[in-house]
TrEMBL record:
This is PIN domain-containing protein. Residues 3-130 form the PIN domain. InterPro entries: PIN-like_dom_sf, PIN_dom.
Length: 140
């Protein structure tokens, strides 16, 4: 199963982004093979698309349509409260702090989905958070 990070979905939705064609291709492959994303990704897509600098910022209703499309197109993976706490505890045990916790939560969802390939535009942070998944983490 192919798992996609928020960054890939956001870049795919932005015609100005030079990575758009590669991201669209990865999304098409993930979609055809039963791809997945994290529940957190739905909120993050909305947040990013509605706070981009003008003229790239999308109105809330347009961002909502992308979120809805994503939720229908992919298996959306959620963590239980116990899985979320275990992720945070593992993150702390590794000596990590800050916003990379969101990458850790996304990667826990990828683990839960048994993802064979994880696509992100931020592979360095993903590999830092989950070195055991490094061979599965790819840029589009």
């Amino acid at each position: 199963m192919n798992f996609v990070d928020t960054s890939v979905i956001v870049a795919a939705s932005q015609p100005y982004d030079p990575r758009q064609p590669a991201c669209l291709d990865r999304l098409a492959v993930a979609d055809a093979r039963g791809g997945a994303c994290a529940i957190h990704t739905l909120s993050e897509i909305f947040a990013v698309l509605t706070r981009l600098p003008l003229p790239y910022r999308l109105p809330a209703d347009a961002a909502l349509q992308i979120v809805k499309h994503t939720s229908k197109r992919f298996n959306v993976i959620a963590l239980t409260p116990a899985e979320q706490m275990a992720t945070i505890e593992r993150f702390v045990a590794e000596g990590l702090t800050g916003a990379m916790i969101y990458d850790a939560l996304i990667l826990s969802c990828a683990r839960k989905a048994n993802a064979t390939r994880i696509y992100t535009l931020n592979p360095r942070h993903f590999k830092q958070v989950a070195p055991d998944l490094a061979a599965r983490i790819h840029e589009p």
